[in-house]
């Protein structure tokens, strides 16, 4: 097999994404893998965040998909050279597609909208069921299939979002990736958040509502919209927003 291709440096690519942006993302990914207690899980997470299949990344690295799979499953421990090849391959593949992920992950200075109460990315993807337990939640609609792995969460004050967040700013709630849980607080029936999620082109992996005391107080349309979008919907019974945030922040 051929070795990993170097990150292209010709003008056609440097006009798309700057060298500084590329370097920031490379350092970010490699650093997270290096300090992770489960480097293979971190590698898999970043591959999924970049939207790449295992076989494409393995091909760019010059290894077989089974070898990359062994590393992602923790059967092998990656060294510095392997991590570098992995990161370079992600960068190369993204540049071939226009560099959207590089531009997105290189921007670490974006301010949070005031409607966003908290935003966090997990070092290791967390099962949704574990998060539901942490926020004292119950499923209003769960769907079928595997327990989805959540890469992060955003907590939004729904009243503030309605009053102050325009359609161009709504994308901020997705942070680095849409593979996350959106938690809406100050909710009365849940209809408005689910309508917004339904019509917006990006979709989260799950939505939680904080405000209604019982599931009967949640608008039936909200549950129907979650089902139509195939997005698990949760009602959290945390007694306050402070307790809700505390439960989320204790997750690792």
Describe it for me?
By secondary structure, the protein is an alpha/beta fold. The protein folds into two domains: 11-106, 434 Repressor (Amino-terminal Domain) (Orthogonal Bundle); 116-249, 3-Layer(aba) Sandwich (Udp-n-acetylmuramoylalanyl-d-glutamate--2,6- Diaminopimelate Ligase, Chain: A, domain 1). It contains twelve helices and six strands. A six-stranded mixed β-sheet has the order 1-3-4-5-6-2, with helices on both faces. The chain is globular. The mean pLDDT is 89.
Label this structure with key terms.
252 residues; alpha/beta; 434 Repressor (Amino-terminal Domain); Udp-n-acetylmuramoylalanyl-d-glutamate--2,6- Diaminopimelate Ligase, Chain: A, domain 1; 6 strands; globular
Quickly name the level 1 CATH class of the largest domain. Answer: Alpha Beta
Report the β-strand fraction as a percent range: 15-25%
* Proper CATH architecture of the largest domain: 3-Layer(aba) Sandwich
Number of domains: 2
Structural class: alpha/beta
Q: Percentage of helical residues?
A: 40-55%
Strand numbers in spatial order across the main sheet: 1-3-4-5-6-2
